[in-house]
Specification:
The protein has nine helices and ten strands. It is an alpha/beta fold. The protein starts with 6 loop residues before the first strand and ends with a helix.
Length: 240
């Protein structure tokens, strides 16, 4: 009998509040080694809150664990130092800084290890050659798609053990979305676990081994994308 894949990231009864508002209710999810797992749902479903709760950016109960060890609560720096790295919605790049400077910020923990910095930079530029052509360009002057590439590249510069992405397709043209998703597929195939929050379900389902559907702060389904034959199969869960 084949052993089940190791669970890299897991939440158990993870609940998050903003003041008196409960935005996430008892969420149980997991990401195994080498998996890309999607979190789908309509606007306001709590998808971004789930990522914030894992990162320690929201007031929570329940647990989020990484390699079986509980992640710190309300301490996102400590969480990211464990290798749990977020590419936020809206990209969060530093517009007045150059592409090169943004990438350097992603590797700030290296503390002058030039050889390792060079290795990580080469990996990022191989994945996103366009960034290599724009290293001296200010990040804010690039297109939205290039900025999203930079946001992912900056996260990769920290050598993440799992990558969390919040709506990477937001505001991008279909051609650019396809390119971004292709790069995420390459990272998945290299063995990097990925938790992908995405509103554009078809794009996410093409990549995912598993998908959770989140509605009004609750996980209402865990699906195998191969079992979905049409948009209607997924849409019925949105009105659960």
């Amino acid at each position: 009998m084949t052993a089940a894949p190791a669970r890299i990231l897991e939440t158990q009864a993870l609940t998050a509040r903003y003041g008196h508002v409960q935005a996430l209710s008892a969420a149980d999810i997991h990401v195994c080694a080498g998996e890309l797992v999607a979190v789908l749902g309509p606007n306001g479903a709590g998808k971004s809150t789930l990522l914030r709760a894992i990162l320690g950016l929201a007031s929570t109960t329940g647990t989020a664990s990484f390699h079986g060890e509980p992640l710190p609560r309300q301490d996102p720096v400590a969480v990211s130092s464990r290798g749990v790295v977020l590419v936020p919605e809206g990209r969060g790049i530093f517009g007045p800084m150059t592409v090169s400077e943004n990438l350097q910020l992603g590797a700030y923990r290296l503390r002058g290890d030039k050889a390792e910095y060079g290795r990580r930079l080469a990996r990022v530029l191989a994945l996103f050659p366009r960034l290599g052509e724009r290293l001296s360009q200010t990040a804010g002057s690039m297109s939205g798609g290039e900025q999203q590439m930079l946001a992912i590249g900056r996260a990769l510069m920290s050598d993440p053990k799992i990558l969390l992405l919040d709506e990477p397709s937001l505001g991008l043209a279909p051609r650019v979305i396809a390119e971004i998703m292709e790069k995420l597929a390459l990272l998945r195939d290299e063995g990097l676990p990925i938790l992908l929050v995405e509103q554009k379900a078809p794009a996410a389902l093409k990549l995912a081994q598993r998908a959770y559907v989140l509605v009004l702060g609750r996980i209402v389904a865990c699906l195998d994308p191969r079992d979905l034959s049409s948009h209607d199969d997924l849409a019925k869960y949105y009105f659960h």
